[in-house]
Design brief:
- The protein is of the alpha+beta class.
- It has three domains: about 230 residues, no CATH class; about 120 residues, no CATH class; about 60 residues, SH3 Domains (SH3 type barrels, Roll), CATH 2.30.30.
- It contains twelve helices and 34 strands.
- Strands 4-3-8-11-12-1-13 form a seven-stranded mixed sheet. Strands 7-6-5-2-9-10 form a six-stranded antiparallel sheet, with no helix packed on it.
- The N terminus is likely disordered.
């Protein structure tokens, strides 16, 4: 039989029943907090899921609704959450329930695997935390509330390869932890601290296969960087191209980045895995890209026209590059983000020669008999034979337009690559380096420092964040108490779902002395009647009638009699 849902102040009930244990939890959490009282919880908006109208969730742990242990789910339960008309609807076992504007699937303590799997997530990994589901019109906004250290175990393998040396992974863990705490401190009015995409840090959930990353997180637990007593942004990058950058330059980052500086990074350059985009061509331009020779010809066109040569591109032939010189940096002389490459070169061109009017018959006859030259009328000009010029010509190539985009040398979406020129006997090589923004820790540089040079996590961090101090904080853990074992009887869904009430029925809530107590549902109004099911404190029932201290009740799974003294009419 397909049941309709009942929406009788269930969300308010959840909050009401959760209030007492929540206060106790808060008191205990406060006692466990360090002197700073700083929580270790992060709110991560799972933006990688897009704007889903529906999500299928499989609970692989211990979960309740809004922290109410009287409204809980069994391990392995599959739930469909959807957004309709500005409300979140939960569907389980064919039953549905309107949870209002939002609901939280609250995670409790449990042995072993303890999280939720989300169908369609990028890696189908375990999301270890409580899941807030809010309705934004016809879409769900899923926000994972997760412990800081658990969060990092879902970040590290995807921001830095699990195969990297442990000391490099540890440095990455410290940077990622500090970045997350800084984002949390700066969250403003948002209902989340970070997103799970590269806009903040890539987060794909927990996969136990990434043991090195897990070990790095655990080895640096609580270690983070501070500048002037505050968490630093602690940016990091895939590579820096051989020179570190400032966040205030490349990222236009607000606030101070005085803990950073611009200095050479030989370790990034040394790593053969550091990406580099290369354009090599012979000095005689025999194998140069067609666009390059066109640019050189165009740059000489106006000057050649003034010299009496054809200014048509087809009549200009660059012959040899004499020098390539990068110049004019974007953010002052310290960095090597050159904006231009000056090309000095020679060429061949075609001089413009006069075109004369044809001689008339009379002029030809007179010239033949007298031998006197005839003054001919100039009616135009035309290109003459190719002529090699001794003059040098100059062309300014733009690094971030012509080289990067037009010649396909692009490495990064940001215009911050470093341009270098290498001259060999008969070849010029232009290179662009820096994959990413180049600010803070270089992941490839850290890999070289730890792997090839045996440097420690502390040495790596000091190299890339010279102005930071690092300290360990014991963040408070906010884990709710475990939920007791489920009733052996078949009454599992009735604590959450109710059928639609008949006209003579009303909703009541089971109220017992503790949240661990249960109320027997019997087949008849007698303590001798067989027990059909057990209801926990906080469960809802539909009451049909009452007599002699007994109430006839039903839920979505059971119908029978309970002692009416333990019911409170809603």
């Amino acid at each position: 039989m397909k049941h309709r849902l009942l929406i009788v102040a269930l969300l308010a009930l959840c909050l009401m029943l959760a209030a007492a244990p929540a206060l106790a939890d808060a008191a205990q959490a406060s006692a466990d907090q360090p002197a700073s009282g700083e929580s270790g919880a992060l709110r991560v908006y799972l933006k990688s899921l897009g704007a889903p109208t529906e999500l299928t969730l499989r609970l692989a742990g211990s979960y309740s609704i809004d922290g109410n242990t009287g409204l809980y789910f069994d391990r392995g339960t599959e739930i469909t959450a959807s957004a309709r008309g500005g409300s979140v609807w939960l569907s389980c076992g064919g039953l549905q329930m309107n949870m209002g504007a939002g609901v939280t699937l609250t995670r409790h303590q449990a042995e072993g695997e303890n999280g939720v799997y989300i169908a369609g997530s990028p890696r189908n990994n375990l999301y270890c935390g409580s899941l807030e589901l809010n309705a934004e019109g016809q879409a769900l906004q899923p926000v994972l509330v997760i412990d800081l250290e658990e969060y990092l175990k879902g970040v590290l393998p995807y921001e830095m390869n699990d195969a990297f040396p442990l000391e490099a992974l540890k440095a990455q863990a410290v940077a990622a932890r500090t970045y997350a705490l800084k984002r949390r401190a700066d969250r403003g009015s948002k209902n989340y601290d970070l997103v799970d995409t590269p806009a903040d840090q890539v987060f794909f959930g927990y996969d136990p296969a990434w043991q090195n990353a897990v070990a790095a997180v655990e080895a640096t637990k609580g270690l983070c960087g501070r500048y002037n007593g505050q968490y630093a942004a602690c940016y990091y990058t895939a590579t820096n191209g051989g020179q570190t950058a400032l966040a205030s330059d490349v990222l236009s980052a607000a606030g101070s980045d005085g803990y950073l500086d611009i200095h050479d990074d030989p370790y990034d350059l040394e790593n053969p895995q550091s990406p580099v985009s290369t354009l090599a061509f012979r000095k005689d331009l025999g194998d140069a890209p067609e666009k390059l020779t066109e640019w050189l010809a165009a740059a000489a066109s106006e000057r050649l026209g003034a010299m009496g040569y054809s200014d048509e591109i087809a009549d200009i032939r660059p012959e040899r590059v004499l020098s390539l010189t990068p110049h004019t940096t974007k953010f002052g002389p310290e960095n090597r983000m050159y904006q231009y490459v000056r090309v000095n070169y020679t060429l061949s061109a075609r001089p413009m020669e006069p075109v004369y009017a044809e001689l008339t018959i009379e002029e030809r006859v007179r010239q033949a008999f007298t031998g006197e030259p005839i003054q001919r009328e100039v009616v135009g000009t035309k290109p003459g034979d190719w002529t090699a010029l001794e003059e040098e010509f100059t062309c300014e190539l733009t690094v971030y337009d012509q080289l990067k985009n037009d010649l396909g040398m692009k490495l990064s979406g940001l215009d911050c690559e470093l341009a270098t020129v290498i001259e060999e006997e008969d070849i010029f090589v232009i290179q662009l380096r820096r994959y990413g923004h180049g600010v803070g820790l270089s992941q490839r540089g850290a890999q070289t420092m730890a792997g090839a040079h045996g440097m420690s996590c502390e040495e790596i961090l000091a190299f890339y964040y010279p102005g930071l101090t690092f300290e360990t904080t014991a963040f408070g853990e906010e884990t709710l108490p475990p939920i007791g074992s489920l009733p052996a009887a078949g009454a599992r869904d009735e604590t959450v779902f109710l059928p639609e009430p008949a006209d003579n029925e009303y909703v009541a809530t089971v109220q017992l002395s503790t949240i661990w107590s249960t109320l027997n549902v019997r087949s008849a109004p007698s303590t001798d009647a067989p027990i059909l099911a057990e209801l926990r404190s906080g469960a809802q029932v539909l009451v049909a009638d009452e007599a002699d201290g007994w109430a006839r009740v039903r839920t979505g799974a059971v119908e029978g009699y309970v002692s009416s003294q333990y019911l409170k009419k809603d």
